[in-house]
Amino acid sequence: MDAAIGELQKGFLTPEQIDSSRMVMGLDRQLVADRTYFIVEQDGQIAGCGGWSRRATLYGGDHTPGRDPELLDPSRDAARVRAMYTHPDFARRGVGRLILKLCEDAARAEGFRRLELMGTLSGRPLYESYGFTPIEEILDARGGAPVPLVRMGKVIPTR
User: Fold this and answer.
1) Contact between residue 49 and residue 99 where contact means Cβ atoms under 8 Å apart
2) pTM score > 0.90 for this model?
3) What phi, psi does 13 have (nearest 5°)?
4) SS3 2
5) In angstroms, rounded to a whole number, what is the distance separating the alpha carbons of residues 27 and 6?
6) Cα separation of 13 and 159, whole Å?
7) pLDDT tens readout for residues 59-107
8) Which of 36, 43, 129, 49 is nearest to 95 (CA)?
9) What is the maximal distance between C-alpha atoms in the chain?
């Protein structure tokens, strides 16, 4: 996570924004406890991780203020794709796309019809290529320097 935050956002954020983004990103142990978090390994190395949630929190790590553990209603709410990170050594090799497919399939199996996520500028191209569309753009300044983020959504295709 640290390598992904520090390296993959270069060219999209200033050094101050990268430091600030650590307040709104990071490990979310709720996803692990809910068993909705995936780790992708290659040759014994963690290539990436990410998950989905049936809870209301849209983004942020354990330490991020404003989390909401309320359960979502699959008939009206969108499942949340959360805590997506690819190690820089494995970037642009299909790791993120694999995690998105795992999340989509698992959320569909629980009756969700839509997905939402809060994407970074560096992640936006992946999410758009997977079918997510922008809903709103925000600046999150909870860590100091305002970090641009984009809330995105996608309809889960029925099978």
Assistant:
1) yes
2) yes
3) -130, 155
4) helix
5) 15
6) 39
7) 999 989 889 999 999 999 999 999 999 999 999 999 999 999 999 999 9
8) 49
9) 44
Joined together, the tokens standing for residue 78 give 């969108």
Name the phi and psi angles at 8, rounded to 5.
-75, -15
Q: How far is 63 from 1, CA to CA, in rounded Å?
A: 14
Inter-residue contact 116 to 149 (CB < 8 Å): no
Residue 3: strand, helix, or coil: helix
Q: Domains of the chain by range and CATH?
A: 2-60+67-155 (3.40.630.30)
Residues 6+ apart with CB under 8 A from 26: 1, 5, 60, 61, 62, 63, 64, 83
Residues 7-44: tens digit of each pLDDT: 999 999 999 999 999 999 998 999 999 999 999 999 99
Dist. CA 63–CA 27, nearest whole Å: 9
Q: Which amino acid is at 122?
A: S
Q: Which residue has the tokens 């990103």?
A: 25
